[in-house]
Design brief:
2 copies of one chain form a homodimer.
Chain A lengths: L11 E2 L23 E5 L9 E8 L10 E2 L4 E7 L3 E4 L2 E4 L4 E5 L6 E4 L6 E8 L5 E3 L6 E6 L2 E5 L8
Antiparallel strand pairs in A: 2-3, 3-10, 4-11, 5-8, 5-10, 6-7, 6-9, 11-12, 12-13
């Protein structure tokens, strides 16, 4: 809410809210892999700060994120539509509507990939623990939260992208 | 997970997980008002600690909680089935599947009531900020988190129930 004097709505139709305008914070070549993903930040409309909730759509061929784990943040997903594959560093499983999965901080690396011809829609939740870091076992990238909500990405040797 | 050596599952069918055995932590006469409510704690199965996620069902006549607000905890709901009424201290609105609402700490007092003849099912999320308190504008009760996950309820004058 840019206007802090405006009262938040009582409720919203999730799919009618605007998608995030910036498709991803990743640098190239990872940014382009996220173009078949659309996130609607839901919690922000109500002024929530302790955690974020997104309604996320993966078009065919899309993926939720790079294979990753957080050091401090817990994450959770609940599938609403479609059949994504949950890929982790300890195996994979096909999901369907009504299935859920959780990813504790420092747990399995994970991401969702849509290998089907239909869209996938799910709810994703992540808290905003300070000092969080992201690690990516399959890609030469690492992430540190420099300030609340502000991520800095580098190669694993610490050199910057771009 | 009582067996800490057991790896959490990759994913679960939410509705197949067991409901919480204790229907409510409220003392009487409030406990009995929660008997038409069934909560399945989902995040705990995966070892999440920063926030909780429940799949919650309200049978006809059920309510999600007493009208309440938290001092520290943010909350969020996403409706999966049925048509509950969101009652707040600033007005009410009928919800339907695909609608969502968020309740920031120290924001509107709120609860869901099922005034229909059909079940209501929704996902609810709340973080676990330490030092949280619950306040209840319509009832003579107050809550303080004495230890993580352990709530103490008293009357508003501080005298104990029971």
């Amino acid at each position: 809410m840019s206007d802090s004097t405006k009262q938040p709505p009582l409720a919203l139709v999730a799919v009618d809210t605007p998608p995030r305008t910036k498709p991803s914070n990743y640098p190239e070549p990872f940014f382009s892999r996220m173009l078949k993903r659309e996130k609607r930040p839901l919690g922000d409309h109500f002024g929530l700060t302790n955690f974020g909730v997104n309604l996320t759509r993966l078009f065919p061929g899309g993926e939720s994120a790079l294979l990753h784990r957080h050091s401090k943040q817990d994450e959770f997903i609940y599938i609403l539509e479609g059949r994504p594959t949950l890929v982790t560093d300890e195996g994979e499983i096909d999901l369907e509507p009504g299935m859920c999965a959780g990813f504790p901080a420092a747990g399995r690396a994970h991401h969702l990939v849509n290998r089907t011809a239909a869209d996938v829609v799910y709810i994703e939740i992540g808290d905003r623990s300070p000092g969080d870091e992201g690690s990516y076992p399959a890609d030469d990238i690492q992430a540190k939260m420099a300030a609340p909500g502000h991520w800095v990405f580098t190669r694993k040797d610490g050199t910057p992208y771009g």
